[in-house]
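Below is our example:

___
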Amino acid sequence: MLETLTVKDFAIVGEAEIAFGTGMTAVTGETGAGKSLLVDALLLLSGQRADSAVVRNGCERAELAASFALAAAPATRAWLKAEDFDDGDLCQLRRVIRAEGASRAWINGRPATLTQLQALAATLIEIHGQHEHQALLDRARQLDLLDAFGAHAEQRAQVAALALRWRELDASIRVIGGGDDHSERIALLEHQLGELDTHALTPTELDVLSDTHKRLANAGQLLQGSEAVADLLDGDSEFAALRAVARAQNELNRLAQLDPGLAAPCELLAAAAIQLGEAHSAIARYRDGLEIDPERFAEAEAQITKLHELARKYRVPAADLKNHAEAVRVELADLRGAGAKLAAAQRERDHVQAEYVKAAAALSKKRAAAAVRLDQDVTALMAELGMAGGTFTTEIAPSANVTPDPQGAERVEFLVSANPGQPPRALRKVASGGELSRISLAIEVAALGLDDVDTMVFDEVDSGIGGAVAEVVGRKLRQLGHKRQVLCVTHLPQVAAQAHAQLCVTKTANGAATDVAIEPLDTAARRDEIARMLGGVKITRETLAHAQQMLDAARAR
């Protein structure tokens, strides 16, 4: 149940905190005062997308928060626990929308996505907009409503799961079977695997090949360069490094006999001579081992060229060709063993189809029974809503789909006859907007309170009606308020008078800014507000008396 709603810098509301109680609460006020802002705030807290237009002019951000009691909300508790948002007996939603358009949301103080807000809100609150009757014109929505009315959620979920499983198996069978090119695909994969097994290298092998190719490509330069370095170290020239170091050693050793302090440099020169000798030996061995081998170079060149061709052909890096070969090997094995897999998948698909037929037939039977009850309830409500003699009929026809359908084996369409003697016509073809509004309202009222959502919000769903019809609508909402929390934005005194509590929305302007106040009304204030809704500009004693009579009559029920 919704306990509090807090808004700050939202549209034309500076700051407001509204407390809600049980039963039916009416939200009233002058036209244009901002009554629907409460609904807009709840929609945003339910995950509706927002833009910067909802931020109060001149402010950095709009802040919205709502607190729900979870005493009678097992579905909400289960969702919160599954998503790790659970935090005691309260659920707190918060959302901030910044002036530049960015938005953030929290559930019980933890960051949440809009998808998570939407999933959670579906268990907390149900919002009916003033144009919702347009949605009832859609045949898929009509089927959903019939299933909600008949409490078919479990059966429909079973049918949908079986249909989706059948489609998965059917798609798998087409893949396994490979269609007409099954043998051609096997032949192609065998050719690819042979080619890859012949030429593909591991990353390490590819590195070795690249190094070999580079050395062979530069063999002449390496041979000439190593020869030159060897001569610099120990060649015929008197400037060769080893000869120069030897001369330096002899001279330094002679000087060290004169001054022992030169012993350390003597040792360093000796070590340098050893290092230079080892370097000369290593370079000489490298030089002697080098050979210019055009044939081996051509082989390495051809092997690298082939690897690059395969990389382009299979659209993978050359270093990944071995991995690609393994993937081809797995697919080939699957195709070669497809016969057994195909037979098993076909057997499972046939079994799923048989289960689907049974489940769909059971759902069809329940839908037929629910349609009879819905027709009776809506026809009776149409009479109460000023359409005596009108009838409502749910037409059930087989689905055009020849394969298992997640929605079941049939489609429905709502037919109505607004007046006695008129043939039933599709709801979407009803000409009068007023008739459509009342018929749609009758359908909604018939299906109200069938789910476990504890809070229901109605945003001027009574538009287009008035008089005795409006009073009937108010009574229905009040009855619903005995088992659900009902919030109703209305401009009709007949509906507002039926509420257990009432909030009044007023708008004020001081020339520089506009602000909205939302206040609960006590008994006297409710009478005055109902009188205003009845009498317009001038409120007479008779109008006040009439308003009091309406309130007294509602409380007496």
In short: The longest strand covers residues 2-10.
